[in-house]
Amino acid sequence: MGTQLELVGNLQPQLSDQKVSIKIIQPDGSVPTPLEIRTEDLGIFKQSISLDSSGAWVITAVWDGNDNYDSVTKTLSVYVSAEVGKAIIVLGGGNSEVNSEWRIFSSVASYVYNVLLKRQFDDEEDIYFLSPSVSDVEGADTLTATDTLEKAHRLGQETGQQSSSSLYLSPIT
Predict the structure, then answer these.
(1) pTM to 2 decimals?
(2) Domain span holding position 72
(3) Both 145 and 101 in a single domain?
């Protein structure tokens, strides 16, 4: 969130110095005072709009017309989604050779990994997956160890993300 939208439009006919009113309906239904801007050469108008909350935004541009031309209204709908943050998945407890519960825990970790992918988390940028067996677990980045766990937490803190999640899976042995 905090996305800036550069609204650019043009008036047909291409009239300069014409008043265009921009009405914005925010996701919570509130309607701030409409913005009034003026067209430039070739009837072009521009307005930067801060989309600072998630949800559906409705932006309407209105030109009232003049003695020669009728009024014109155009509406744009924009959906802003919340930032997803980062996720750390830690699978511990050894591999299938040393842990009889390995299949269960690794399948849960893989399921969580796939859910995150379906929710638009980026495999390379948003998910850090630690596993005792990198080759046997889809999406695993590196081996589970104290130093890699510490690195994962540092990465989550350094990104400045407001939301990060960790999932720890380890059988009690």
Answers:
(1) 0.53
(2) 3-80
(3) yes
What's the burial of 62, exposed, middle or buried (CB within 10 Å: 0-12/13-18/19+)? middle
Which CATH number goes with the domain that contains 66?
A: 2.70.50.50
- Series of mean pLDDT values for 10-residue runs along the chain (173 residues): 81 93 96 95 92 91 95 92 75 72 79 84 82 73 72 63 52 48
36, 99: one domain:
no
Instruction: Round to whole Å and give the CA distance between 132 and 151.
Output: 16
166 neighbors 154 (Cβ within 8 angstroms): no
Report DSSP letters for 113-126, one per residue. HHHHHHTT--TTTT
Q: Which residues pair with residue 76 across a beta bridge?
A: 59
- The pair of structure tokens assigned to 9 is 């439009």
CA distance linking residue 43 with residue 13, whole number of Å:
7
Distance CA 24, CA 71 (A): 19
Residues 157 and 127 in one domain: yes
